[in-house]
Amino acid sequence: MSKLETAIVAIVEVFEEYAGADDNKKKLSNAELKTLIQGQLSSPGFKEKIGQEDIKEALEKIDKNHDGQVNFGEFSQCVSLLAKGYFKKKHGKEGK
Fold first, then answer.
1. In this structure, what DSSP letter does residue 29 have?
2. pLDDT of residue 39
3. Residue 4 belongs to what H/E stretch?
4. Do residues 83 and 55 make contact, with C-beta atoms less than 8 angstroms apart?
5. pLDDT at 51
6. Per the confidence metrics, is the pTM higher than 0.90?
7. pLDDT in the model for residue 19
8. pLDDT tens column, 27-65
């Protein structure tokens, strides 16, 4: 598999792993999302490349329909915002 294919599969599998903690396998509850964030965004190397403001922005935008749960579309948009934050941190703010 290519790097991009591996990344896509990993994103889907992480969502399914954490969304599977309760009865609704297609959405993350707030508790599941908190567990996911704490478990998956914890390495020091990653934290050096992405700022807390990027994580905060992604979380604020994640529940677009304000139903208290995060579907896969909302989650994938959050991952995209985190990737954008990582890119900016790695290449500087002008690395657009």
1. E
2. 85
3. helix 3-19
4. no
5. 64
6. no
7. 93
8. 998 788 878 887 888 888 776 676 667 666 666 777 777
Locus of tokens 């994103």: 11
Residue given tokens 């598999």 in the structure block: 1
Round to whole Å and give the CA distance between 45 and 59: 20
Q: Which secondary structure element, helix H or strand E, spans residue 28, and what is its range?
A: strand 27-29
Q: What is the DSSP letter of 69?
A: E
Alpha-carbon distance of 44 to 29, in angstroms, equals 26
Task: Give long-range contacts, CB 8 A cutoff, 24+ apart: 19-22.
Answer: none
Angstrom distances, CA of residue 31 to CA of 16, 50, 65, 76, 81? 14, 23, 17, 18, 21
| Averaged pLDDT score across all residues of the chain | 82
Nearest in space to 18 (alpha carbons), one of 67, 60, 79? 79
Question: Do the beta carbons of residue 54 and residue 82 sit within 8 Å?
Answer: yes
28: β partners: 70
